[in-house]
Amino acid sequence: MNARVNAVRAGLSRGWTEFRLSFTNAQELFSGYLLMPAVFVVLAVILGGERMAGTDTSAGATTMAMGITMHMAILGLMTVAQVLGTEREDGTLLRARATPHGMLGYGVAKTGHVLGMSVVAVLLMLVPGTLLVDGFALRGLTGALTLLWVFLLAMLALAPIGAILGATLSNPRTGVGLLVIPVMGLVGISGVMFPITFMPGWVQSLAQVFPVYWIGLGVRASLLPADHVALELTGTWQLPQVAGVLTLWAVVGFAVAQWVLRRMARRESGSRVQAARERAMKRAY
Q: What is the pTM of this model?
């Protein structure tokens, strides 16, 4: 038990260190933190206060809620997959395997790192959006608390999926690019870009299997006017279901990710890592 606790503590420390170091890399700072918030804030301001039919929700507010949900999905799925795939090539995973409960600590570190990045990214959208976009604001203390727990459960549910995807990528450089298609497809059918009630029934049922739909529902519940709920599937925000589904994905996902990572790490060896490094160097030149 003590070894597991120590592994979790080491993972939390490593995740905090990686998060702080991300601010020292100009490219990561721009692409990971600034680019997407800037795009969505500008787009929301341009769209302005035009109301959606039958609601008091402005197009700009809907755009901001969409941007926050998309940013969570991209950070939790694609960023984790890219980092894990890269660290598999450079030998980081091999070193983690060599320490007691190293894969547990590694998983905790990656989750902590992504949580930190996501907090900053959401704040960079929430603060200017509240100041500049008509109708976009937290719905009081209840809205703030709702966004907080939805955010935490969302990242805990998505990060293990990203880890599993990263573990299956044979080439992290090209593989992450290919992930854009299914990730954006999932976002597209989940009612994030436009109300899910516009979708066929079978698409609505499919979307509810995955966490992105429930994340978007929770985000909209915390940030959009109350009458926007009329555009949701059941005419309610279904917050208990949001919490239940995301918790289930987080628990099951973390368990499966640990199994996948341990299985992948057992297949790694010093010679395979060296071969991967040589391939990466050849591609660089």
A: 0.85
Reference 156, options 84, 102, 211; nearest CA is 211
Task: Transcribe 213-257 into DSSP letters.
Answer: HHHHHHHHHHHS-GGGGGGSSSSS--HHHHHHHHHHHHHHHHHHH
* CA 191/CA 65 separation, integer angstroms: 11
- Tell me how far apart the alpha carbons of residues 215 and 157 are, in angstroms, rounded to a whole number: 10
Q: Any residues with CB less than 8 A from the CB of 114 and at least 6 apart, and which?
A: 75, 76, 79, 80, 155, 159, 162
3-class SS of residue 66: helix
CA distance 146 to 98: 40
Q: In this predicted structure, what is the pLDDT of residue 169?
A: 72
Distance (Å, whole) CA 99 – CA 52: 55
Summarised one tens digit per residue, pLDDT across range 81-92 is: 888 777 777 767
Do the Cβ atoms of 133 and 45 come closer than 8 Å?
yes
Residue numbers in the chain where pLDDT is lower than 50: 270-271, 273, 276, 280-281, 284-285
pLDDT confidence of residue 16:
87
Q: What separation in angstroms does the CA of 32 have from each of 29, 71, 81, 88, 231? A: 5, 10, 14, 21, 32
Q: How many CB atoms lie within 10 A of CB 160?
A: 26
**Are the C-beta atoms of residues 185 and 121 closer than 8 Å to each other?**
no
Q: How far apart are CA 92 and CA 74, in angstroms?
A: 23
How many angstroms separate the CA atoms of 129 and 126, rounded?
Answer: 5
Residue 228 pLDDT:
87
